[in-house]
Amino acid sequence: MLFFYFFVNMTLISHHKDVIKQNLISLIEEQQKRDPNPLRIAGRTFKSRLFVGTGKFSSIESMKEAIEMSCTEMVTVALRRIDLSKNINEEDIISVMDLNKIQLLPNTSGARDAEEAIRIARIAREMGAGNWIKLEVTPDPYYLLPDGKETLKATEVLVKEGFVVLPYIQADPVLAKQLQEAGAATVMPLGSPIGSNQGIRTKESIKIIIEQAFVPVVIDAGLGLPSHVSEAFEIGADAVLVNTAIAISQHTGYSAYSFALAAIAGREAFLNGIIASQGTIENKLTDTWKKAEASSPLTGFLDEERR
Amino acid sequence: MTTQFSDYIKQFPFDEVKSKIQSLNQNEKYTRIKIEQILNKALKEEHIQWYEFLYLISDPALEYLEVIAQIAQKITRKRFGNAILIYAPLYLSNECKSICTYCGFRYNNLIKRRTLTIDEAYEEAMILHKQGIRHILLLTGEDYRNTPVNYIGEVAERLKYHFSSIGIEVYPLKTEEYEFLRTKGIDSLTIYQETYDPIRYKEVHLQGVKKRMEFRLNCPDRGGTASLRRIGIGALMGLSHPETDVAMVGLHANYLSKKYWKTHITISLPRLRPAENFEDVPMVSNKKYVLFLAALRIFLPDVGLILSTRESPYFRDHVIPICITQISAGSKTEPGGYSGKKATEQFHIEDHRSIPEIVEMLKSKNLDPVFTDWVYVMK
Question: I need a labelling partner for B100 at 20 to 30 A (CA). Which of A202, A249, B33, B289 fits?
Answer without folding.
Answer: B289
